[in-house]
Amino acid sequence: MNKTALLSLSLSLLAMACTPGRQAGNNRQIIIQEQGSFAAGGTVIKNPGTFDPCKPTPDGQTFSGDHAYVFYQVPANARKYPLVMWHGIGQFSKTWETTPDGREGYQNIFLRRRFGVYILDQPRRGDASRSTVAATINPTPDEQQWFGVFRLGIWPNYFDGVQFARDTNTLNQYFRQMIPNIGPIDIAVTTDAASALFTKIGPAILVTHSHAGGMGWLTAVKNQNVKAIVSYEPGSGFLFPEGEVPEPIAMTGGSLAAVGIPMAQFMALTKIPIIIYYGDNIPDKPSDNPGTDGWRARLEMARRWRDVVNKHGGDVKVIHLPEVGLKGNTHFPFSDLNNIAVADLMSAWLNEKKLDN
Amino acid sequence: MNKTALLSLSLSLLAMACTPGRQAGNNRQIIIQEQGSFAAGGTVIKNPGTFDPCKPTPDGQTFSGDHAYVFYQVPANARKYPLVMWHGIGQFSKTWETTPDGREGYQNIFLRRRFGVYILDQPRRGDASRSTVAATINPTPDEQQWFGVFRLGIWPNYFDGVQFARDTNTLNQYFRQMIPNIGPIDIAVTTDAASALFTKIGPAILVTHSHAGGMGWLTAVKNQNVKAIVSYEPGSGFLFPEGEVPEPIAMTGGSLAAVGIPMAQFMALTKIPIIIYYGDNIPDKPSDNPGTDGWRARLEMARRWRDVVNKHGGDVKVIHLPEVGLKGNTHFPFSDLNNIAVADLMSAWLNEKKLDN
């Protein structure tokens, strides 16, 4: 091989190594400094009476429930603030793990970016299903409806250009990401457990999805260790100062109400940077498609909320992804086909806010 | 600092680095080649009728459930056969993760020993709680009873020398490891899902706990990718050839029955190496303590089973841990205070059987 050929080969190898998304071999390893799991928060019920070990009945026994379950990983050379990832309605930790089509989700993506990652199952869900309240659960067929609400398309058709793989195995994995609540979702219970997590681990950045959006605001009100919030498609529970609560926003099949809290509590939300992202295929005007129309109302409410928080000195930004060039995102931008680009936006914001030291 | 002092300091640092259990810095890192999660197996219910996206009802919709949920990690330079870890009754993946007192469990221990680790939540449990059958769940206080059945002691007293930390936070974490079934445990459903996992990942070693013991034997009957089984305190479901099923063994509060299967199926269990471990504080003779007496019956049944499998050409070993010098183990030897020694026994057996290449 002459020198020119050798140089050419070297340049080829260099080009391969530098091609985004084609990292090979050891570049793909994740070095974990520490990983594990624990229960955070929760309560204990104590039955009256005396426990008899030889003739056990519920008398005198305890029941510990309503905690969150947390699995965490801290990479080598971790950045200062870890990320706490909180799933949405009917979901669990899977939201952030392997995507339905088998790619890496936010868990791995942000471990690679040297963030500690704490993923929770909220109280009464999944691995935190030791609920202190009774529940009856029925397997009600609902997947075609979620296909619409999660904005994959209008069953059985996908939206043009939707960032979701169209094979049946992907859809099979996606539907199996949903699990039931064991008893009602109790906002005080879930936010107490999330707050207990922040008390245990110290200052961290909260990343919420959908129904966890509103619970995330409330967790930040409860605990100053919430240093920032990244919220994907928050669904409900926007907290306004009492006296400044907007009228509910009408949407197909109902309306979206806001929540009033005392000004002293509200002000906590003006002290931290917050960014909100919504995906694509959200109608501009009222639509008779209940799958998408709710998201029009929520995006509108998020913008009203941004304006009120910022008026009181806050730092809230609302990004409608198509407006910044990311098209086709569903209700799950962090696991969509373009989730690296979605994560890049989040990384840039964390950098801008000096949250990635 | 003079040369002697410098040498002395260097030797001190060297000594610190070499003290067992005090590995510092990079020695404690786990290098992950790949990690993620997926649903394995399961079924789909389809409701009759036609789905209308604009007026959704359950008509024409599907429900995908009864799969196992699996979180896996493959370390760098992994050994040939990964470990599939299957929790016991009322438990989930937590069984194998951080111990109740905050040390590393089998997940980390065996990643460090270069095994791929697949941990499942069985169908209708935890993160696999999308059950195809209806369920009513009541939070019944039961923790003092489990304290006895899991052989920590006789409430409120711990057994002398029990391998379990006695602080309240440990017990709090321990009790929160229990979660409900969403609907009845269906052995065909759980073993079908476990078998689907082995079909997906290929040859692997199954590690079971307690109630998963019997389901583990059945999974090996169903799937030849089960290359070996390590079973901690199997509780029920010992499979004998029809015609060779022993009488039930009486125990306080009931009896322990064995299960008959056709000889052709049974013979699968003679083709793979199997090791069974039981912990300490199991009575030799019938006892009126229902917390411990069941384990006497199960240990006796395990030995009968060993003899029958081995008579037909199998390779089953039953280890009662106190007999090999490990004292004080509970129903959870793999998370007990001496779990490194317990893991060392397992590693030695895997090595003896050439399962750790």
Which features does this protein show?
homodimer; alpha/beta; 8-stranded mixed β-sheet; 29% helix; 357 residues; Rossmann fold; Carboxylesterase_BioH (chains A, B)
Question: Can you walk through the features of this model?
Answer:
The structure is a homodimer of 357-residue chains. The first copy, chain A, has one domain: Alpha/Beta hydrolase fold, catalytic domain (Rossmann fold). Chain A is 29% helix and 22% strand. Chain A contains nine helices and 17 strands. In chain A, helix 3 (143-149) packs across helix 8 (290-311) and helix 5 crosses helix 6 (212-222). The radius of gyration of chain A is 22 Å and the shape is globular. The interface between A and B is large, with 78 and 78 residues.
Task: Please count the helical segments of chain A.
Answer: 9
Q: CATH class of chain A, please?
A: Alpha Beta
**SS-based class of chain A:** alpha/beta
Report helical residue fraction of chain A. 25-40%
Order of helices and strands of chain A: HEEEEEHEEHEEHHEHEEEEEHEHEH
Chain oligomer state: homodimer
CATH topology of chain A: Rossmann fold
Q: Under the CATH scheme, which architecture of chain A would be assigned?
A: 3-Layer(aba) Sandwich
How would a textbook summarize the main sheet of chain A? 8 strands, mixed
Low-confidence stretches of chain A: 1-25
Radius of gyration of chain A: 22 Å
Sheet with the most strands: spatial strand order of chain A: 1-4-6-5-10-11-16-17
Keywords (chains A, B): Signal
InterPro entries (chains A, B): AB_hydrolase_fold, Carboxylesterase_BioH
